Amino acid sequence: MNKKFAFRIRLLLIVIVCIAIVFVVKLFQVQVVQHEYFLDRADRQYVRPNYSIFDRGSIFFTTRDGDKVPAAKVNHGFLMAIRPSQITNPQDTYNKLNEIVEIDEERFLSSASKKDDPYEEILDRISIKDKDKIVELDIDGVSLYKKSWRHYPADERAASTIGFLSYNKDDELSAQYGLERYYNDTLTRDTDNVYVNFFVEIFTSFKDTVINGSERPGDIVTTIEPTVQSTLEKELEDIYEQYSSKSVGGIVMDPNNGEIVAMGSYPNFNLNEYGKASLDVLSNPIVENVYELGSIVKPLTVAIGLDSGKITPNTTYNDTGFRELNGYTFWNYDKKARGIVDIQEILNNSLNIGVAHIAIDKVGGKKFKEYMLKLIGEETGIDLPHEQAPLVSNLNSGKDIEFATASFGQGIALTPIVMIRALSALANGGYLVDPHIVSEIEYEVGPKKVVSFPKPEQVFSNDTSEKISRMLVNVVDDALLGGTVSKERYSIAAKTGTAQLVDESGGYSEDNYLHSFFGYFPAYDPRFIILLYTLEPKGEDYASHTLTMPFINITDFLLNYYNIPPDR
């Protein structure tokens, strides 16, 4: 056989096989993946032929055992419509229907009076059980049709992280917040165009599946553990209620890889009733709001001193209680001098003068700035919309007073997600991990995508990480509430923060504070890092009194829930 002819035959066979594969994939989509869709179209094609059946990918929580729990899904039910000309006794019809499903009487009677209108929608989201009861009534002029809608089974749980769909100005459903918005391209199902041109749709499906894999529709699987999320949210609500706070927030994260296990804020809202919530609670303050977070920044300053080789845990200095720089005076929180003390005392007693001494006199402003900008100078890139950039321009002023205030967490404003990322570097050997919510994308067609990240940048050495961890364990064992929350069998590293808030005049308020707290455990091989904050709490002046016990409660729960073995 002629070699050229044989080549053509083989090439033709390859083309035929490729086309066959594409057709098989498409048939699988039509008959299996989109089976519900075509059933819905069949049910509705004569009533509203141009109506687009709603469909969207699901969002899942992941339990500690690896099971998926729906956080957002599409629910299926029925819509009730009437043909007014066939309703002979509107009041009687209303009474019969209202015994099964609650209907607005005024709306129903008004719709039934429009005798020239062939179609009036009365009620949607009717369950299958109620649908069967309505069908049994066999009322002329009353029809039921399949209906799909977005549903959030967990209601309030992780609401600001999940996000929701709402109608925009064009009366179209649009993703507004959270994962719904960030992963909208993946979650969106565009199925109407299968009626335009079957062969165009085949080509489009092939292109999206093979060439543009990231554009394929699918479900997203998050790292949020539902029971941990509920535990965190309960503690946040308790803080809010007990101290009449303006707002409260918290994060539970794996410091080794950036997986967000829980993230929440309070006040909260119900995703299925988002219309009842005020606008200021719909966004996610963990990634969208910046705060001067106070003394939880101090361990970063101490770690910078250790890592640069300018101090050791045993280095001493003379604490005078106050200091004047560039015409400004600042003090320790209690305005008391401590005399000659070592670096451990800076953390145990949260001494502003001590960390300022490290930043300015030991490390130097230029080097301190370099470290800080690496740690907190930019967004984390977390997979949530509208992440706010840190406000750290004061570090570029070159003024010692700005370096001093930044060393104890004032004069710079950070999102909680930026803060917990930087603090994780203390726990994990010095690495800046990538905080993230989604672990996998399960595509409708083709293999799933496991979310991965490049090796993180190492800002501190392993030795620095170990030293600062030992110092923070000492804070818990000896200083935090007098050592009363220390655990005999577990090492816990932690630090509190109490920051003055800026008032209307642009200065710092003497009455309003932000309290913050972070900790990780087991300290030398950490499974979790927790960050909590509360804005303008009432009745207590310091974070040690408002946030220590909520942190301990969450820590105890995690130790038991995950069966974490003791480390001492």
Largest sheet: 7 strands, mixed
- List the uncertain runs: 40-50, 193-206, 208-214
The helix fraction, in percent, is: 25-40%
CATH homologous superfamily descriptor of the domain at 226-561: DD-peptidase/beta-lactamase superfamily
Question: What is the total tally of β strands?
Answer: 20
Radius of gyration: 30 Å
Mass-distribution shape: globular
What would the CATH topology of the domain at 226-561 be? Beta-lactamase
CATH class of the domain at 226-561: Alpha Beta
Report the portion of residues in β strands: 15-25%
Please tally the helical runs, counting DSSP H or I stretches of 4 or more residues: 20
Computed structural class: alpha+beta
Mean pLDDT: 89
Named CATH architecture of the domain at 226-561: 3-Layer(aba) Sandwich
What is the rounded distance between the termini? 79 Å
Q: How does this structure look, described?
A:
The chain has 568 residues and is an alpha+beta fold. The N and C termini lie far apart (79 Å). It is globular, with a radius of gyration of 30 Å. The chain is 38% helix and 21% strand. It has a domain at 226-561: DD-peptidase/beta-lactamase superfamily (Beta-lactamase, 3-Layer(aba) Sandwich). It has helices at 3-33, 35-44, 90-98, 105-112, 128-137, 159-162, 178-182, 184-187, 198-211, 226-243, 285-288, 298-307, 343-348, 352-363, 365-376, 400-407, 416-427, 462-479, 543-546, 548-561, and strands at residues 59-62, 68-82, 120-126, 142-151, 165-167, 173-175, 218-222, 247-253, 260-266, 316-319, 322-325, 328-331, 339-342, 431-432, 438-443, 449-450, 457-458, 493-502, 508-521, 528-535. The strands form six sheets. Strands 1, 2, 3, 4, 7, 15 and 16 form a seven-stranded mixed β-sheet that branches. The chain has a five-stranded antiparallel β-sheet with strand order 9-8-20-19-18, with helices on both faces. β19 and β20 (528-535) form a beta hairpin.
